[in-house]
Amino acid sequence: MIRPRSVTSRAVATTLVMATFLPVPGFGTPLSLGTVRVMRGVQVSSDGGKTWLAASMAPTPLADGTWIRATTGGALLELTDGSRVSVMPFSEASIEREAHGTAIALHRGRLSLRLPARARLAIEAGDAHVRPAGDEAVTGEVLVTGDRTVGVRASRGRLEIQETAVPRRTMFASLEPVFVPKRPERRGPLFVTDAPATPPPGARAAFGPGGDSAGYVSDGQFIVHPGFSSGLTRPFPSSTVQLAMAKIPEPDRPGATPLFDVNGGYLGYESGAVFYAQAQLTPARVAQAGAPGGGAAGGSGTILGVSPAVLAIIASGLVLGGVVGVSAAGASGAFDGPATPFRPGR
Fold first, then answer.
1. CA angle 229-234-236, nearest 5°?
2. What is the pTM of this model?
3. Among 16-20, 58-62, 87-91, 237-241, which is the least confidently predicted range?
4. C-alpha span between 297 and 281 (Å, rounded)
5. Do residues 36 and 66 make contact, with C-beta atoms less than 8 angstroms apart?
6. Domains contained in the chain, number
């Protein structure tokens, strides 16, 4: 990630980011695939994920070949055929033009879909291709975990899933979800509609490394809810973040995001639409991660849940949560705590 070091460099970085979305005039076919709106905590890449820059929060044209990586934020894609696709927090996806419309590759995390009748959209997720089934409008969700397990559900209409691995099967998801290759053997919410509508009593606020509000943890489950509490005035110290990253098993580190409580206590990490609570890491995984030994027990984690209220706000293209103030001293200095008192259930 490239971090601007001054007002001038920040302006240059913003210009570069906007340039990745802007169409090039003079060609008969427009390069824009639609419009993208982002929240805080989103990066974009125009070179296949090699270089990432903070995305401009102003609505911008969506260029062919754009990659989007969201941590505690999200992005709303409004495509030229009328499709609205939300790249949810803790997700990574790439978008490109195909012969009959737009193709989105979901590398990890989840997409929320609101597709019009006869939408021209194809989604590549894990070992499956997902498309609208028939000519009716579709509202649904697609998720991909770190082990490439794919989950698909449609609350309106149907989605067609074609496996790319052998044996190849064609299935249809509606209110009854479909999983490829099989349903994960984990407890906790799988889809948006499975998550609790309101935070339960005693939920603990969770923050990303930058001090931005990510959601809350309750009963070993992490629910994405960026507006659950105020953001913090500064990021967590780099030493705190590095120590947390060292506790994450090596295979999970690419794309993993450690989460902390308001005092900097390590709660666990999110990787590939799955949250691994600190207390739930098995002894083998703790030893592999280099964490202190002990009787850690439990399962391998729970599927990431997303609050329906947060989904509605993301789908509207609005910015969530409070402003996180980051100073030069805060990047490496002591953690000063929250900007405002913690407000449960916000």
1. 90
2. 0.71
3. 16-20
4. 6
5. yes
6. 2
